[in-house]
Amino acid sequence: MRILNRSLGRLSRHRRGPVAGLLVVLMGLVLTGGLYAAFSPSSSAQDDNTAALVKQGHQLFLVGCSFCHGNDGQGVKTLDGNQIGPPLVGVGAAAVDFQVGTGRMPAVQPGPQIQAKEPSYTQDEIDAMAAFVASLGPGPAVPNPSDYSTDGLTPEQLQEAISRGGQIFLTNCTACHNANGAGGAMPHGGYAPKISGVPAKYVYEAMLTGPQAMDTFSNGNLSPDEKRDIIAYLHSLKDSPEYGGFGMGDIGPVSEGLFAWLVGIGSLVGVAVWIAAHTARTSKQKAEL
Amino acid sequence: MSDNLPETTHGGDATLAHEPIPDPGLPEHQWRPTDVDPKAERRAERQVAGLFMLAILGAIGFIVSYIAFHVGDHPDTIGNLGASNLALGLCLAVTLLGMGAGMIQWARKLMGDHEIMEMRHPASSSQADREAAIAILQTGLEESGLGRRPLVRNTLLAAGGVLGLLPVIMLRDLGPLPGDKLDHTIWDIGTWTPEMQAWWKTQDRSLQRVVRDVVGTPIKVTDLEIGDLVNAEPEVLFAVDPDTKQLVVDGTDQLVDKAKAAVILHRMLPQDIVSQQTLNWSVDGIVCYSKICTHVGCPISLNERTTHHLLCPCHQSTFDLADAGKVLFGPAARPLPQLELTVDDEGYLAARRDFTQPVGPSFWERG
Amino acid sequence: MALDTSKIADTNRGKAATAKKPNKAGAVAEWADDRLSVGSLTRYFARKVFPDHWSFMLGEIALWSFVVLLLTGTFLTLWFTPSMSETTYEGSYPQLRGVPMSDAFASTLNISFDVRGGLLMRQMHHWAAMLFIAAMFVHMMRTFVTGAFRKPRELNWVIGSVLLLLGILEGFAGYSLPDDLLSGTGLRIADGLIKATPVVGTYMSFFLFGGEFPGDIVIPRLYILHVLVIPGLLLALIGAHMVLLVFHKHTQWAGPGRTEQNVVGYPMMPVYMAKAGGFFFMVFGVTALMGALLSINPIWKYGPYDPSKVTAGSQPDWYMGIAEGLLRIMPNWETHIWGVTISWNVMIPGQILPMLLFGMIIAWPFFEQWITGDKREHHLLQRPRNAPTRTSYLAAMVTVYGLLWAAGGNDILATHFHWSLNSITYFMRTAVFVVPPIVFYLTRRWCIGLQRADNDRLLHGYETGIIMRSPDGGYSERHLPISDARAYTLTARERDHVHEIESAVDANGVAAPGTRSDRIRARLSKGMYADNVQKPTAEELEEARHHAEHSQELEAGLDHPAAGHEFDDHALRDADDVPLRQH
User: What is the ipTM of this complex?
Assistant: First the structure.
């Protein structure tokens, strides 16, 4: 990998288009993937299963995805060179599982950011499409539940994992996603989505694949254990009681200020009006007068 | 009445002609139902007493909640809310609001209802008082001889001035002088403390590694994929003294050093890099920048993988990681300082040298 | 003027009293009076008159939240450790166990999780702080828009402005104390602001932090400012504020019998003692309610401060919002010249503009007095519409404030309304210059329109809603005169006087001294007052009444003469007894 990138660096000294560079890399990735596939041992029964799954996935892909991503996941460009859908060679099964599983794909319309919605496919269909896309080139696989599960940990280990995960979370994630996992703004209409309450698998996949504009946190960057710890922390936050009351959207001082004015000052001005308002009057006179 | 008060609205004889409508005077008092109707009065009395009773109940509830609900390791909850906080707060609120509402209702319904009137007096003293005051001051001035003895007066003033200087001088030791501290970070091994130097001698290496924040592990080029973002620190911050098993840089020192030395690593395609310097200082598309915003110093790590634009969460300055940290948007004026990366003998990412300019917010002397 | 003299509290006569039959309470009172003259004090203060109006109680919200702050704050000091020494947390909050942090942060966690009621007190303290400053703002706006700052109350206005500034500083010092990620980020920004000061910036920063940021001493220093120095100043100034309030007596709205020479309202003892005391409990209660239900500053989620960590949605408390907004929308100007750096991008929004805004607040009473040349005392309030320029100036300033405040939360706006962060910033950069003048113009026209409507009501009466058809087929609405009390209230205001330059030159033809400032004054005066609608004169009113009587006479000959009153609900209003401020 390193040698490959070095040589690319030299080639690119005369500034080529970014897409051209991307394609070169993808070619490299396909090559590596092909070699890997050729030399890795596998049983033939599995191969048959996988082949069927890939075929099913390709059919689904042709119907639901190919309009933007091309018939073979090579990506589609408009006439003026804009990308409708990016190439999917090498994005891996994890990316498909995340994008389709959270409903982001298929996208309703292009925009600064594709939003999550109800998923359009069943998990079986998603698995098939993931198998198809994974067959295009090597990429991160869908993580195994054991990768992010904390079931095997002793209470002490779990405690330690959560504390450590919290510190990693606050260092790597909160800048965009906020300390409560409530999300935050990015430039030009983009945003870091709310991650509190998102299933562990998708959080893990998002770190692995870097959906949309998000950076990737590959296993060489944050080890699988560190990813597990982050998820454990996020879930522990979700499972903790709201010690101090309602969170007002968990977005910090802006909503606190709003509530101070609307609820606090609002109600106290109401009390002031009540105190100073004249009570009901009567035209009757006091008996002894 | 003083001339100080405007006359236009109080209907004095002299101005009556100018005023379109004369002051009809205070209206006749009207009674409240509670004044004339014993039934209404008793009802109001019951309302007030009821509110005070509510306050008592709230206080009892408060005491019960204080004893009943646990905080600490296994806090009680109501719904998903902390039970202690909720119950104590609500009971306290009932007590206080009951007291308050009771008192207000009492004043509104049952207390005397006649508005009374007070006359105003001008704020200024009478002419006689003023003259007397001036005379007293004159006498004092004469008797002290302040005017006649300029020597005494001037030396007193000088003494007062000097005395005022003393507290200012005493504040000098609030902190050390800045010197050139802001120009360097601990990426420069030359600025290290003796303890850090001693640890470095045990390492037998020439370049300081860039390590992951929080866990302190070194990073190989092959660890990172295109699009990876690593929040990193100089390795000395995680150095453990081999003898004492303690961190070499600890506590506040660590925070001070982190406040300038924190960096981010980002791996992009080398051909995406625009600036020649950025390319030269990168390793296989891995660039390293200061994590401290050049605006007012927030840590900055909101990166868009697709554009390599780095956004500050505090004031939204945006920097281009592919182009020498150039400012694209927002209030920051200077590009984000880049750290020159290299690979050490064992293949780990390391800094070739310190930042070539001060990191973080601008200051007068930075030039 | 029909005055019931029995109701006048006379506070000027006094003769040493002799107690008749001392019972126990009387004996105590006598003991105290012999030493403290409590008798005279009670006589003077106990029947102080407070006019009844909701807007006169806004300052009380601030006062009572300050008391809540003192009470809850004292509770917090019993556990809080103002130290930046490092410790490893082993308390009850599981997610942070084993994490190194400062004593300050650890003790705040201890208050939140291991002291019963500690979290409640923390949250109440924080909510009360937000309310304290918000109430000061509302109170100041009321004072401003009704002209209550005019002579003799200018000094109290200045004291109030300083209280506001101190309150904001106190708040900033306070939320920096827990040493959590958000407060540390706030301090870091403050450090950046300080460093941008020309020449001495780095020195100030090193002196404040005892070395390089963050150092280990800033929290103990802020602590003593927060619990002693600033509260002491606040208390002293609040005391002075109240003394002046009592000395000047309260302002009041104009109305029948309510003049510049008197103050009409309820006595301190017992009515206002109960009302104000009750209000204290209400403020305290609302704070308790908010502390019980609404989570504020959950520091355990932010974690201890670490200069390499940050969270999205890093905002200061609301009252620092405009500084934050200014910082966010400021273009990135910086000058490098003669080997030094001048950070306009930080200095202008962080230092120059806040000081300018504060200066404008303090200076207004003196500025206005210079233009009007009015040296008389004023105790009757102006209705906002009767000072159109001042009212619309406030509206414009509130608009600027609101825009900057919104700009300070532009990331929250972006995520919640799906707007582009960058577009919001570009919009705000323009809007702060364009929108306030529009608001100023519209408010001014609105005020003047209301003044006209007042005059219409005086001259032609109020609209009854009865449509009359004339013999030749025309339709008109029946108007009936308003009551004397209402009419008086509407006219109980002064005519505006536009300052004019007497002569640009003196008798010898030489330019008179001060002519230039006089010319500016005249122009400002014209701009501020020339367009105002003045109340009708007695003659105009007389003529209008005559005209109305005439048309009523004509209508009297109709088959079904309508008096009008049978259809309206103005019975009470026309009973001459309820002053205008009620409606």
Answer: 0.91
